[in-house]
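User: Please predict structures.

Assistant: First:
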Amino acid sequence: MSNPIKSLALLAFSLLALTGTSKEASAFFVAAQAQITPNMITGEVYNQFPRPMSCSVRVNGLRNDGFVQTAWAQVTLMPGAYEYAYVYTTNYPLYFINGEAFADCHYLF
């Protein structure tokens, strides 16, 4: 005969394990494009899938003085939609020499 408390605890743990898992655990990377100009880095992410998704977008810009500027955005993309994130520099002697963009997404349903 099994212990009812132990069985109830096992059932509760199983339900929490199945329903409490984060959506971020099933996140996937999508191709993010970076466009580099001397005073701005533009990161672009596109939803090519038939389902809405939520994405974390990060854009890094390397300036000529070695400093890295970063921008981050949390966006929701419908199918066929674009979203942008920007990094700017407005000081005249400082300009961007390199940049990159990353996007980490998961489906909303």
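Second:
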Amino acid sequence: MESPCLLAFCLLAPLWAQGINLSQGEAGLPASPLVLYPWRQRAGPSRVKRAWVIPPISVSENHKRIPHLLVQIKSDKQLPGGVIYSIKGPGVDEEPLGIFSIDKFSGKVFLNTMLDREKNDRFRLRAFALDLGGATLEDPTDLEIVVVDQNDNRPLFQQEIFTGHVVEGAVPGTYVLKAEATDADDPDTDNAALRYSILEQGSAGLFSVNETTGEIRTVQVGLDREVVSVYNLTLQVADMSGDGLTTPATAMIYVDDINDNPPEFTKPEFSVEVLENTSGVDIGRLLVHDKDLPGSPNWLARFTILEGDPDGAFAIRTDPHTNDGVLSVVKALDHEGRDHFTLTVSVQNQNQLHPSAPQTTRALAMVQVQVRDVNEAPFFRENPRLASVVEGAPPGTELTTFSASDPDTRQPQALSYSLAYDPADWLLLDPRSGRGAYDLNQLRNPDFFPPPCPRGKQPIRRDAPYSYATPPYPRKLPASPSDIEDFINEAPGEKTEPGPG
């Protein structure tokens, strides 16, 4: 029958599984080594063979006194010095290499370097016991080494600056944003128990943070974008339930605009001038003021002409950069017909006003438009004007009287008549009365004949022609007044022989 054997363990670190605490002496060695007998041979005629049972060995990360004795394993199947011990696994002969080692004769297991729980939180090794000839004395057993966490990692916010938005006038309890942080320490310990707080937010105290979730919400009324548009909060997260390591961050909270300010004219009345007979031109600007966010639909103005423009001669558009109303003339105005307009103009926003917006009396304005006169050209009532003369009429016979009118009825002016086109110099025109007559002077210039005019017709008068004449051909002019009648009656294209010398 196989002789009974005993496996003893000397634990030089606290054995939590058994509730055993060891006092430490110098160099990290136990003051009184403790030998444990995790199992013994049962009472009875037979022995049940069992593998070694070793409780987990705990060691703190960042342990600086190395090498550090963790545990001693022993087998009593041979006399002391007759057993060879070895361990294998991660931290020994697998990556990361060389963290643990064992004295092959004593069975002492050592820690050779500082541990980092955030890299490896536990190691599972296999322990072996052989005789000097290499035969197995004990079944291989597991040796688990647990790395105990220390608070060696600060909590870290997921970003340095958090950004949130909240509308002005928001009620208390409105969600704004969530600040989140992480801690690399053991989440099952206080080393990673995080607490959030607001260190600084100004004197208003409009926001609060949930200390466990990091949610930021409003806590009171008073958000007004026109007063404060951005709030800068300094946040902090701390581990150890708020008593450990800390890290700061910033929260930028933007107050979003609502249309709680109506547009207002800067004055109740505007005055502009415009020249008559002009259209498609800007004649003035109507200035407004709005406290809401520039460039937004809550700020942009919309103008309407309510009264004073029955014919639609005016229009108002919005300058998107200044928010001014640009007044323009879209139909030509007549000073003589109407020289003054009084427009009633209203202003609104593109968006509807919020119910919280105050009432205003400056949403209406009067615009006085003065139409200035310009010197307009007179015009002939009959154009072209046809005139005739009886055969044989002597030179100086009145042919017709021209009549012109001046549109500037409010500024009467004297009219002066003149011939604009008479290349043959056949006509006389009274500059004051507009009476036209036949002239004999051209007969004294026998070498002259007028050049042809466009389209084969010779107008006697450009602006108000008497009639049209056929382009002349070289002819011998009458030598005396008695030959004029024959000259006039001669058919076009016929050639008249010159009279006697």
